[in-house]
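re the bet — no i am not wrong, look at it urself. input seq straight from the record:
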Amino acid sequence: MWGHKINLMQQNAIPQVRNYVNAYKSYNCLELTTKPTSITPSSSTIIDQIYTTLPLDKVTPGILINDLSDHLPIFVLIKPAHVEKLNTKAQFKHDFSNFNAEEFMEETKEVLNSMIINSDNPAAALDDAIGAIKKVLDDYAPLKKMSRTQRRLAQKPWITSDLYKLVKTKNKLYRALVRCKFDDKEEYKRYKKMRNKVNHQLEISKRKYYQSQFLECGNDSAKMWKLINTLTNSQVKTHSYPNKLLNPINSQHTGNPEKMANIFNDYFVTVGKHIASSITPPCSNTYPVAYNGPDHSFVLHETFPEEVEAVINRLLECKSVRMNDIPIRILKLCKNALSPFLAQIFNHCIRKGTYPKSLKCAQVVPIHKGGQKDLCNNYRPISLLSPINKIFEKLLYSRLYSYIEQHNMLSTNQYGFRSGLSTSLAVYDIHENFLQNKEKGLTTCAVFCDLSKAFDTLDHEILLWKLEHFYGIRGLPHKLLTSYLQDRHQYTVVGGKW
């Protein structure tokens, strides 16, 4: 593909251009660009060119009518010898254009109030409630297939529906000008006026959007940097997947999303076990049963509707959820009816010491870390869980963390995963120790360790034993945490397939 000042429209009039074309033909190169690619009110030229040695039935050239520049974009589609069918699922989105919030909340309340919770099987009641809310939501905001334009506009949220209409009008004017080869001077003036107006409106809308986004960041530095990277076009890790993925079992590549999803899932499930199997086991497989643990025990108090509602209010609507999950905005909308129901479900689970099975299933999204994109070990898994699960987890976490802090069970040197502490404070403390040792004339040595797949290689049996014997988490709370860790499932999504 070439872009230079040789105009193929002059090959019959200028010998140099004709010699240039013949030189390509002598190497069996065929010219695919036969129509003007640069059209102005005063000229039409073919200075953007594509040549190929492939047979014409294997290629499909074309020109895009677009005013991105004064040169029309050109392209060629090459038919491969073998095409593996990519049977990706279409993207769907709830249509809230005719959504009646008051009627939806009223019907959701009636559905939840009519449900009977079996104390022996609260998980079944939870599954029925989730299914019922989804059905009501589908009635009031039916799922609709997202068009290619909708998916594209979702990546540019500052383009409003009115602004998109102006862009379409501008593009329509430009296509009309190309068809008439810019001969209509009045239409050209009209197009230029519309183009300037659209560009000005796009700039203003984009500026206002990012201004509001920066204000929403507040003191959240991570969110702030993510926004800056978006603006500066820095590399941001996305939920993208490779065109092809290497299967480590048979060393063959595949481009089928369903097969890639299975390869990713098998890798994520087994990588921790493989690393753990290489770890040298302790000298003794028996635990020190002589230690009776603390003289206090963890009491897991039940929850109440107001607490559940407060947790729902703190959920972030921008966070991703699994496919087919109830959107967080809908949970917040029907929180008054949902909170008492969830409080009953959670309390039954606490009394029985069982964690609902449907809340233990994760949707995994592979995120590229760097390196070759066709290798599984260059991706890290991001697990998406049900928003209902997040509510229950936050309730359990607040009680467990309060108990551990109350009895000073955490090391003073642990800075991660603790309220009010951070890795910045850890660096500060290390720096202070260095300075103190320097003043005392001492030599300081530091060893930094990075544990590979630390959470994946964690032995749940040892963890649960320590919770019971060292931290006083016994009885039903221990049974609930055991249920939480056992029988967990996951599926990996690639291109809408899993």
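see?? The CA atoms of residues 163 and 423 lie 44 Å apart. told u. also The longest strand covers residues 361-368. so pay up
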